Amino acid sequence: MVKWLLRDPDREQDLGQAQDIMDNVGAGRAELIEPVHWLIEVAGVISRLSPQTVADDLILLHQIEPGPFSPPPPSLHHSVM
Q: Is the Cα torsion angle 40, 73, 33, 46 positive or negative in sign?
């Protein structure tokens, strides 16, 4: 998830593969299956690596609907930031 948001080859490797996965998810050819706390963990990483974009990144991430688990409510996001 962090790769999709940062898109920085100096920080993240395999950006092409990460984009391919996101394209497949977006097209319905693949499904994300994440633990219930995935959004909070990703928000914590993004808030450290890219604090200037974390609010917009959380909005984008909240639109992703992983497999059988539901993301936590937005009220929990503030505890990470």
A: negative
Structure tokens at 5: 């948001």
pTM: predicted TM-score of the whole model, two decimal places: 0.61
Q: Three-state SS across 33-78?
A: CCCCCHHHHHHHHHHHHCCCCHHHHHHHHHCCCCCCCCCCCHHHHH
CA 58/CA 64 separation, integer angstroms: 10
Return d(Cα 33, Cα 42) in angstroms, integer: 14
Are 77 and 43 within 8 A, CB to CB?
yes
- Ordered by start, the domain boundaries in the chain are 2-79
Quote the CA–CA distance of 1 and 48 in Å, as a whole number. 14
What is the rounded distance in angstroms from the CA atom of residue 61 to the CA atom of residue 47? 13
Q: Is the pLDDT of residue 49 over 70?
A: yes
